[in-house]
Amino acid sequence: MWYAFRPYVPAAKRRAQAAREVEKRRKKGQAVSPVVIEGRTIATTFWGKAWCDNLESYSDYENRLPRGRTYVRNGAVVDLRIHPGKITALVSGSELYEIAIHITPLTDAQWRGVKARCAGEIGSLVELLQGRLSKSVMEVVTAHEGGLFPKPREIKFSCSCPDWAGMCKHIAAVLYGVGARLDREPALLFLLRQVDPLELIAEAVPRAGKKNSTGKKTIAAGELESVFGIELAKPEAADRLAEPGVKGAKKRTPGRRKAATPAPAATVKLPAPGTADAAPHSPRARKGKAAENRKRKG
Fold first, then answer.
1. Which of 23, 75, 101, 204 suits a disulfide with 87, CB 3.0-4.6 Å?
2. Mean pLDDT, the chain, as a whole number?
3. pLDDT tens digits, one per residue of 102-138
4. SS3 string of the chain?
5. pLDDT of 11
6. Cβ–Cβ < 8 Å for 15, 76
7. Tens digit of pLDDT for each residue in 243-274?
8. What predicted TM-score, i.e. pTM, was given to this entire model?
9. Domain segments of the chain: what residues?
10. Residues whose CB is less than 8 angstroms from the CB of residue 206 and which lie 6 or more positions away in sequence, other chains included
């Protein structure tokens, strides 16, 4: 009975059908995002290839993936959208089929583990998304256990086709299509797993900081200069600029007077004994004056 298994549709016919469907939806003003593969290679960048390698590493999928590769290469994926925790798609087969794939979010514990193992190893978001990572970081993000890619038990899918197999060729085509899409937009992987890639970068900066009285982390002045390439004004220079009459001085806000700084204790230099600078009423001075008077009288 053909209603259980639809008649085979040649690849050329599927491509033509997919192209017509894309054009029809665009004429209606609907946004369509088909998967277009140039040549035989589905994915060429780190993230796209890592996604496909992850799929192919599970024996659960090995029987169905080959048909999916053929479908996606032939342009059968008419529309593919990646949302937080979900993938939706339209695939052209004997008919146009609707696919929904749900991906379990990365748990907080898993994400903390990834961040901890990658801390200080990723220099920038551009470096991360371009896949310019050290071998140790690549091993972390692609690991079967504790990595960024979903395992079979974290993937739930459905297709409107009559194939009741665990994974039909249409779903397999969509999963490969995700790999091709990550070639162009690698940040979509983080969206799909519902984590923020900037947190991987931020882990490197707080390590240089210290906690202040409010419990928030701060960066010491010397570290701030080296991180941002700036030269900070010295405290005494800042105080001088605050003094009235100095060019470039800042006006003081009324009611906020700077506390007076105690003047340093005066240093008194005592004259040498017997000199003219000695104190006039000291005993030594009086004796000297009396001797001078007696000499005059004699």
1. 101
2. 75
3. 999 999 999 999 999 998 888 888 889 988 888 889 9
4. CCCCCCCCCCHHHHHHHHHHHHHHHHHCCCCCCCCCCCCCCCCCCHHHHHHHHHHHCCHHHCCCHHHHHHHHHCCCEEEEEEECCEEEEEEECCCEEEEEEEECCCCHHHHHHHHHHHCCCCCCHHHHHCCCCCHHHHHHHHCCCCCCCCCHHHEEEEECCCCCCCCCHHHHHHHHHHHHHHHHCCHHHHHHHCCCCHHHHHCCCHHHCEECCCCCEECCHHHHHHHHCCCCCCHHHHHHHCCCCCCCCCCCCCCCCCCCCCCCCCCCCCCCCCCCCCCCCCHHHHHHHHHHHHHHHC
5. 63
6. yes
7. 555 444 445 545 555 545 555 544 444 444 44
8. 0.63
9. 11-106+153-195
10. 217
**Tokens coding 201:** 């970068």
Does position 37 have pLDDT exceeding 60, yes or no? yes
C-alpha 104/C-alpha 100 separation (Å) is 13
